[in-house]
Design a protein that fits this description.
Elements: H1 2-35, E1 45-49, E2 52-53, H2 80-92, E3 96-101, E4 105-106, H3 110-123, E5 129-137, H4 139-145, E6 150-159, H5 172-178, E7 181-187, H6 195-198, H7 204-229, H8 233-241, H9 248-253, E8 259-260, H10 263-274, E9 284-286, H11 287-290, E10 311-318, E11 321-322, E12 326-327, E13 330-332, H12 333-345, E14 349-358, E15 360-362, H13 363-379, E16 382-391, H14 393-396, E17 403-406, E18 411-413, E19 417-423, H15 425-431, H16 456-481, H17 485-491, E20 496-498, H18 499-505, E21 510-511, H19 514-524, E22 531-535, H20 541-544, H21 547-562, H22 566-578, E23 583-585
Parallel strand pairs: 1-3, 1-9, 2-4, 3-5, 5-6, 6-8, 10-14, 10-22, 11-13, 14-16, 16-17, 16-18, 17-21
Antiparallel strand pairs: 7-19, 12-13, 15-23, 18-20
């Protein structure tokens, strides 16, 4: 009886807790709905922009934004789509006098920063000011801030200007200690995704490609900073190479910044520029609030004519490519295929822009999406806009489009395929003392069994399958890019290219951002007026509160516990996922420091 009452009490407590959560969510959604009417922008306001972490492609669909509980607060996650739209809007907003770029730590890769930087350059054409300030300038934030009219640093701050580096974590030693052999089947001299599993250092081919694309990225970085700051590229190279910028005074001496100031002095300058009285509060608005503001959107590039019946669909494909539905941070072949079909069958949609930001993933899932791109192309124009990454499977789903846009520092190419099958015999037998025995009805009935090594015949079978997949991949690219398969093979082999390099070898048509891709789609569809619609539909808060919420909470807990070491956890987790099916994905998670 005592046990019975214990269970009854636990059930009641659970119901009460659930009811409270539902009520809180309901109140939050109602509050959010009322706040969506728009934030007011005061006259002579400053648009305050500060980034912290990774910038998503789209602003998350979260009515609980600004109400931080249960780890669901996404108030810092303004998507690239809204960032670009907001800067464009601020350019013609009479209430916005300038932009204040404040202390930022940007984890996104360089193409995302490039798009924001170009939007800021366009903003300056209005004659309005941009002031940048930080206590710590990372290279990514300085690249963004270098376009400002005035760049300031705290007198005791840190200025990072040392050049680029890229490091790979090799796992072979750990696997050897565990008694695990990674059995590798691949096509592509440069397809180095598997190298960390069977080597302890970079192969010569991989070192060649990393040196090449890292050099291309760095050259672009120095060239653009040089143009903005009126400093020669060679001088910038020497400053970084000799670590000449060690203190804020050095940054001022070599003209990378315009002054050493404390925050109160920056605020005084903003008061002067906005005509605000001394000690008075500066009229300003945060980026996340400006996204919801009631400012005039007539010139918003994301909605050329909201009343037009003609539409251009933007389909966002962001994250690793896998089968199934996926979510807002991964590309599920079923979800993206449905979005492409919906846009293709909608008579109001006259053209499609496929926004790709992906390192690739499952070769099968990539092919499923490629097929839908091909079918869409037969019905209406489809343009690809590449973000930070559109490599391997990310390139596979792009290659059939009518035209491909990329940023100069987009990472693309990596046309290759591989498969991994672990041999865990030594782990089971020698480390754990576990043995296996069984019966088969055919010679290859246990092909793929991880408790034994591959026989020569089995390896030959898997190699043939991977070769077949590479043949399909290169044929698809050759057809889409109007090249011979032999040529695609010569620039393929898993090699990674930057957007700037890719345009020279025919993998990309033009350098430009998502707005350029939209303009091209409109031109191909012969549209002067159109409305933009976005696919696939973003997950609601109720979706997040289900299984994806549990995953998000688990991820946050692990990140909190591991800190900077979380990246190693992600790498090991990624290896286990790659062992499931043949992969068309980047050689590893490319991180430029």
């Amino acid at each position: 009886m005592k046990q019975f009452f214990k269970y009854v009490l636990a059930t009641i407590v659970g119901l009460v807790f659930t009811s409270i959560i539902i009520v809180i969510i309901g109140i939050a959604i109602i509050a959010s709905a009322s706040s969506d009417k728009g934030s007011h922008v005061d006259a002579n306001s400053v648009l305050h922009i500060s980034f912290n972490g990774t910038i998503p492609e789209r602003t998350p669909n979260n009515p609980l934004s600004g109400l931080p509980f249960l780890g669901l607060d996404d108030n810092k996650d303004v998507g690239l789509n809204d960032i670009l739209a907001d800067i464009k809007k601020a350019k013609t907003d009479n209430n916005i006098k300038g932009i204040f770029l404040d202390e930022s730590y940007i984890e996104s890769q360089q193409a995302t920063v490039e798009e924001i930087r170009n939007a800021l350059i366009d903003f300056k054409k209005s004659g309005k000011f941009i002031i940048a300030y930080a206590e710590v300038y990372t290279q990514s934030f300085y690249y963004l801030a270098s376009v400002a009219d005035k760049v300031y640093i705290n007198p005791k701050g840190i200025f990072e200007f040392k050049g680029f580096s890229s490091q790979i974590t090799f796992l072979k030693g750990a696997l050897d200690k565990l008694g695990i052999e990674a059995q590798i089947i691949k096509v592509g001299t440069y397809k180095s995704a598997v190298e960390p599993l069977f080597l302890t250092k970079m192969s010569d081919a991989n070192r060649l490609q990393v040196t090449s694309y890292l050099g291309s990225l760095y050259d672009h970085f120095l060239t653009n900073i040089g143009k903005s700051r009126n400093i020669s590229k060679d001088s910038l190279f020497n400053y970084a190479n000799n670590l000449a910028i060690q203190f804020p005074e050095d940054a001022l001496k070599y003209k990378l910044v315009d002054g050493l100031k404390y925050k109160d002095e920056i605020l005084d300058e903003l008061r002067a520029r906005t005509g605000t009285e001394k000690k008075a509060t500066i009229p300003s608005i945060e980026l996340k609030d400006y996204t919801k503001s009631d400012a005039d959107k007539a010139d918003d590039s994301n909605d050329k004519n909201s009343s037009s019946k003609n539409r251009i669909a933007i389909i966002y494909a962001s994250g690793e490519i896998n089968g199934g539905d996926g979510d807002d941070n991964t590309i599920g072949s079923e979800r993206i295929s449905k979005a492409l079909r919906k846009a293709r069958l909608d008579s109001k949609v006259k053209a499609v822009v496929l926004r790709v930001n992906s390192p690739g993933g499952s070769s099968l899932a990539s092919d499923v999406i490629w097929r839908e791109v091909m079918l869409t192309k037969k019905e209406k124009p489809i343009i690809v806009s590449m973000g930070d990454l559109a490599a391997s499977g990310g390139y596979y789903i792009s290659c059939a489009a009518d035209s491909i846009f990329a940023e100069p520092n987009t990472i693309t190419g990596s046309i290759g395929i591989f498969a991994i099958l672990p041999n865990m015999q030594k782990l089971f037998n020698d480390k754990l003392g576990i043995t296996f025995d069984g019966v088969t009805t055919g010679k290859y009935a246990d092909l793929g069994d991880i408790s034994k090594p591959l026989s020569p015949d089995e390896r030959a079978i898997l190699q043939n399958q991977v070769n077949h997949g590479y043949d399909d991949f290169t044929k698809a690219v050759a057809a889409g890019r109007h090249k011979t398969q032999a040529y695609i093979n010569s620039i393929g082999q898993g090699r990674v290219w930057t957007g700037e390099q890719a345009i020279k070898i025919g993998l990309v048509d033009r350098l430009g951002n998502i707005n350029d891709a939209v303009a091209s789609a409109a031109k191909m569809a012969k549209l002067s007026e159109y409305k933009l619609v976005e696919y696939p539909e973003q997950k609601s808060i109720l979706d997040k509160f289900g299984s994806s919420f549990n995953v998000e909470m688990k991820t946050r807990a692990i990140k909190s516990e591991l800190g900077d070491n979380y990246k190693y956890y992600e790498e090991i987790k990624g290896v286990t996922q790659m062992m499931r099916t043949p992969q068309t994905r980047l050689p590893y998670d490319i991180v430029i420091n």
